[in-house]
Every structure is written in C-alpha cells, then in structure tokens.
Design goal:
- This protein has one domain.
- The two termini are 26 Å apart.
- Helix 2 packs across helix 5, helix 2 runs parallel beside helix 14 and helix 3 packs across helix 11.
- 71% of the residues lie in helices and 2% in strands.
- The radius of gyration is 19 Å and the shape is globular.
- By secondary structure, it is an all-alpha fold.
Length: 343
Amino acid sequence: MRRGVLYGVLAGALWGTVFVVPRQLADFSPLLLSAGRYVMYGLVSLAALAPMLRRVWPRLTRGDLVALVKLALMGNLLYYLFLASAIHMVGIAPASLIVGVLPVTVTLLGRRDHGAVPLARLAWPLAMIAAGIVCINVDVFTAGASDGLHASTLTKIAGLGCAVGALVCWTWFAVENARYLHRNAHFSGNEWSVLWGVVTGALGALLWLAILAMPSGTVQESVSASRWTSFWQLNLVLAIGASWLGNGLWNAAAKRLPLTLSGQMIVFETLFALLYGFIYDHRLPRGLEIAAIVLLVAGVSWSVRQHAGGPEETAHGDGIVPADGQHGEGHSGGHSERHGNAA
C-alpha cells in the first residue's frame, strides 16, 4: 500500500510538469508548443512500438486508425493547445484547478454507460467544486499581476475559456477512449497507448509542416537559437518524463491501491502543478486560491468516495481510470489503471 501511494505521488509530480513548461516557453506560440511536444512524444512512442510491431500490425484495422486519429486530435493536440493557451493568458493556478475537475466531469458524462450513483448523492461534492471554480475565477479578475501576467479582461476571459476547452477535450477523450476499448479488446492497454502516441506524433509532424508552410511570423515570432534548444529539451523531458515514466509509475500504483484511493491520487497532479507554478512565480497562494484548492480537492475526493464499489470511471490529465477492471493499462483485474499519456 505505501509503495503504491509513493508511486502515485511520483506520477502526479511528473504530470504536474506539463503545466509549467508553457510558462517556461512563454515566447513560443501554443500551436508550436502542441506540435513540438507531440513530435517528440511520437518519436518516443515509435521507439516503444518497434519491438511489438510484428504482433500489433496484423491486428490494426481501419476503424482503429480512425479512432486513434480522433482520440489523438482531441486528447492530445487540441487539449494541449487549449491548456498552453490558458496558461499563457491566466497562469498555471486557474488552468490546473479547472482541468483538475476531470474526475467528476468524466463520471458525469459516462454515467449512463455505467449505472452511476444518483446525482442527488453528488449534490454536495458538486456544490463544493462549483464554489471552488467561482473562487478561482474571482481571483483571476481581482488579483494584481503578482504572478507575472499582465492581461486584459478579455484576455482573462479567453484564458478561462481555453481552460474549460481543455477540460472538455479531456472529458470527451477519456469517455470515448474507454468506450472504444470496451468494444474492441484486441489490443492491450500498453499496445493501444503506444499506437496512440505514434499517431499523435504523426499528427504533430503534419501540424509542424503546416506551420512551416505559413508565411514567416504568422504563428511564431523570431527567437534565439538558445531558446529553440530549450524548446526541444523541455519537450523531450515531457515526452520521457510526463508521458512515458509518469504512466509507468501510475500503472504500478494502480496495481497496488484500491480504486477509490487511486482515484483520489489523481489530485496530486493538480497539487504539484500548483506547487511548481507558485515556485516558478516566486509567490505564495492568495486567499481565494487557497479556498479554491481546498474546495476543489475536497469536492473531487468526496465525489470519488461516493462511487466506492461502483462501476464508474474516473479520469484525468491524459488518461482514464476504469473502475470495472475490464479495460485499461495492463488489464489488472479489479484495479484501476491510467490509460494513455499524461496531459
């Protein structure tokens, strides 16, 4: 149990870096950040695919490819485009707290599939989450520029909209990915995750070529060679750390923890994202931010506990936690595992 908790915390620590990199690369456009990150992730996935290619290729159908393209577009490229845009416009704290509601939104969207608990039982957890979202939105519009961001009201509204867009993308992805895996069990969770990474990399490369074909300065302003070096180094760190190692640690944690506990462990991604953000901005959280953190973490954890023993699913960041043990990374019957790559 203790080792499982440790693995879950370490996974959250790695996933939290996904929220910091866009701040570190603030001089790069979100479109370029999304393309660059997933080109690197595609290369890492391609290396992982090589040893299993002979056994995976014959099972790959046209329907699988169509599904992988849709999932990669929604769950990776669009998700990260929205997330990076939100972080550029309103900062790490609002973006991470809004996206951190994922375990609840996935449960609500997939509730008809799995006979979820009545909404009446979720009334208080959802009320706490709503109150937390109100707190973080009020903070965005009332706080000064202590986090290093000087944004207009319209920019802040757009940034919050992008954070909601990231939440919508990942909610849709998590539910649709689980449904597809439930209907099509001819790939293991690891095989499907690797294929998804390769397809994501191919789409990222196409997006990169499209950006290159645009007139100079349309998407990205000129930056120094040293900044380009940082760009590729940080994207490689995300590909190996957040996507590959983070998933492995989560799967190891999920095999050792009960479903309700592993579902709550996902909250560490949000907490580490906030911690990194406050350290990066050299400041302490403001009062409304503290209130939002407490309300959201408590609300999400309470919602997960309300589903104890039920057949629902909880998801985040870049993955889904199947409660029924019938699909997901490794098919470890009875325990939940995160499927896919980290956000």
